[in-house]
Structure formats: C-alpha cells, structure tokens
TrEMBL record:
Keyword Magnesium: yes
EC number: 7.1.3.1
Keywords, sorted A to Z: Ion transport, Magnesium, Membrane, Translocase, Transmembrane, Transmembrane helix, Transport
Region (Disordered): 40-60
One term of GO molecular function: inorganic diphosphate phosphatase activity
First-listed, main subcellular location of the protein, grouped into a coarse class: membrane
Protein name: H(+)-exporting diphosphatase
One GO term describing the cellular component: endomembrane system
Source domain of life: Eukaryota
Transmembrane segments: 12-30, 93-112, 133-157, 189-214
Subcellular locations according to the entry: Endomembrane system
InterPro entries (UniProt xref): PPase-energised_H-pump
Membrane topology: Multi-pass membrane protein
Length: 275
C-alpha cells in the first residue's frame, strides 16, 4: 500500500520544485544585500567600507576601501564578461552536437521497427497494444533536447550566480572568514537549489505532457523520457571538460599576472587569483 497516492505525488513533486526555486531566490537576495559598486565607479559602496563599529576603517589602517571596492567591482565585471563569452562560444558548438545527436537518436530508435506508425504489442504484456516505434523515437528526441536545454540553462545560471558572488565574498572577507563563508555558502545554496529544482520541474512537466499522448502506456512513456537524462548528462559532460580547460587557462593567466605585475611566486597565497 502506497504511503501517498497518485494525487499526493502530483502535488508534492511540483511543490518541492517551487519551494526549492523560492529558497534559491531568497539566498540570492541575501547575497545581493552585500553592496558592491558598479564597475564604472558610479555607485559607491559606502556601507561596505564601514567596520563593525560603523566608522571608516581606512582612517585606522590607511587603506582606501573605496578604491578596493571599485577594483573588486572592475575585476568582477571582467570575469563575468570572460565567462559569458566562453559559455556562448561553447554553446555554439554544443548546439551542433545537440542537433546531430538528436537526429541519431531518432534514426536509431525509429529504425528498430522500420519507422512503423502502427501500434505494437507491449513487451511487458503482449495482450496490450503500445505506441508505435516512430512515436517513441520522436518523443525520445524531444526529451533529449529538453534535458540538454535544461542543462545548458543550468550551466549559464550557475555561472551568473558564481560571478555575482565572487566580489561580495572577497569584500566580506575583510570583516572575517565567517562573513565570507556565509556569502559563499549562500551563493552555493542558491546555485544548487535553483539547478536541481528547475531540472525537477521541467522533468515533471515533460512527463505530464508526454502522458497526454501515451495515456496508460507507462512503458513507452518512461522509455522516451529517459532521453531527458541523456541530454542533461551529455551537456554536463561537455560543460565540465570545457569549463575545466577554461579554468586552468584562467589559473595559469592569474599566476603569470601575479609574477609580472607584483613579482609574486606561483601559487603564492598572497595572490588573490589563486583562490
């Protein structure tokens, strides 16, 4: 006997996705409350340059915190532009792969029954008739594209959250490792909950839309919906490999800049780009 019925599952699954997205938005809002000036210096970070006691810390240690904040904003803007340019360049190649592999999926699955449009006996119950092979091939291809697009969207949103939080984490680190950890943790939570919840929501919607056609043919429905996972994992694989190469290139560039501009040895903890 099921703990919750079908109606309960139909409510709990999208509710969990919506709660996850709302929680991610709340975490993002908390990170956004850390003030960072615009990269052109128009917006001052007056509140960010104050110490815990509320007075200007630059009067004590001789550090111009407005200049530090402006520099952080400038670096954040440059990182965001570079990461966005990389992602869109990578996505152009991924679009070719997505289209090509979608055609391969359709051809292989459709040719299993010679692109038949007639209902076939179900494998789990020969007495019942299931949807034709051509329909399974088409819906598997659509599910693959949905999973791929969801993964691509997740990668872009994750990058935006990361670049949004990096300067804020650095500025909060002036007030202690605890404050910096909170900002970094909140940004990671926003990223994780947003990606997982959006993937769950898209999967839930896809299953229900596919179910309109498949009806009680659960075998055909879930054979076709497996393309969703294949599409998501394929894009994640390319994103991980390509992102690793890009990250390593940025790491080497940061080490070189530290050596040239400040004569800092490689992997020296004084180089902020090492983190």
């Amino acid at each position: 006997m099921a703990v919750i019925g079908t109606a309960g599952a139909e409510v709990l699954i999208p509710l969990a996705a919506v709660i996850g997205i709302a929680f991610a938005v709340f975490q993002w809002y908390a990170v956004a409350k850390v003030p960072v000036p615009s990269h052109d210096g128009e917006d001052g970070g007056g509140a960010a340059q104050k110490g815990r006691s509320g007075h200007d810390e630059s009067a004590e240690d001789g550090v111009d915190y407005r200049q530090v904040e402006a520099r952080c904003a400038e670096i954040q803007h440059a990182i965001s532009i570079g990461a966005t340019s990389f992602l869109f360049t990578e996505y152009r190649y991924l679009a070719v792969f997505m289209a090509g592999f979608a055609v391969v999926i359709f051809m292989f699955l459709g040719s299993a029954q010679r692109f038949s449009t007639r209902p076939e006996p179900c494998t789990y119950d020969p007495a019942r008739m299931c949807r034709p092979a051509l329909a399974n091939a088409a819906f598997s291809m659509i599910a693959f594209l949905l999973g791929a697009l969801t993964s691509v969207m997740s990668g872009y949103l994750g990058m935006r959250v990361a670049t949004f939080a990096n300067a804020r984490t650095a500025l909060e680190a002036r007030r202690g490792v605890g404050r910096a950890f909170v900002v970094a943790f909140r940004s990671g939570a926003a990223m994780g909950f947003l990606l997982a919840s959006s993937a769950l929501f898209v999967l839930y919607v896809a299953i229900n839309l596919f179910g309109v056609y498949y009806g009680d043919d659960w075998g055909g429905l879930y054979e076709s919906i497996t393309g969703y996972g294949l599409g998501g994992s394929s894009m994640a694989l390319f994103g991980r490999v390509g992102g690793g190469i890009y990250t390593k290139a940025a790491d080497v560039g940061a080490d070189l800049v530290g050596k040239v501009e400040r004569n800092i040895p490689e992997d020296d903890p004084r180089n902020p780009a090492r983190r």
